[in-house]
UniProtKB/TrEMBL annotation:
Record protein name field: Putative pre-16S rRNA nuclease
HAMAP family: Nuclease_YqgF
Gene Ontology annotations of biological process type: rRNA 5'-end processing
Main location (coarse class): cytoplasm
Species of the source: Kiloniella spongiae
Length: 162
């Protein structure tokens, strides 16, 4: 699967559709959704991973329910910019969504370095959440953080083209 550029995404997504942000981990997938103008990301849920078929079905249902036209998937790049086994796992998930589950919408990757730790710091410092409550929200919040980063980049690109 050839990587799409995040800046091409608005041209590939039908008008009035939204973007889905995913933070795929080994045990969970954090899920967030954008507004139709691609300006604001909101966390919506955390999927507890099970078999691929069940996970893909849940993502398909979310895509249909939320009118999704594209997916921004967090890519856990190493701090030095290299890609390790976790990146390969995320890339395989994206390929399987396309090739096995039949997803026909574009999927792009967004560098998620430090997203979970940034969200954790916020939840501890600003939101003063307990460890149990943080565990319940950190994955979907990280998905929103990843998606918001991509949305901000798209907005900056759009502002520079006019």
């Amino acid at each position: 699967m050839q990587d799409l550029d995040i800046y091409d995404l608005p041209d590939l997504v039908d008008r009035n559709k939204r973007l889905l942000g995913l933070d795929p981990g080994t045990k969970t997938i954090g899920v967030a959704v954008s507004d139709r103008d691609f300006k604001v990301a909101s966390p919506i849920k955390t999927i507890k991973r099970s078999k691929f078929k069940a996970d893909a079905q849940e993502l398909k249902e979310i895509c249909a329910d939320k009118n999704i036209g594209g997916i921004v998937m967090g890519l856990p790049v190493n701090m030095d910019g290299s890609e390790g086994p976790r990146c390969q796992s995320v890339r395989t998930l994206a390929e399987n969504l396309k090739n096995i589950a039949g997803f026909e919408i574009p999927i792009v990757f967004w560098d998620e370095r430090m997203s979970t730790s940034a969200v954790e710091r916020f939840l501890i410092g600003e939101a003063d959440m307990t460890r149990k409550r943080r565990a319940e929200v950190v994955d979907k919040a990280a998905a929103a953080y990843i998606l918001q980063g991509a949305l901000d980049a798209i907005q900056r690109q759009n502002n520079n083209t006019y």
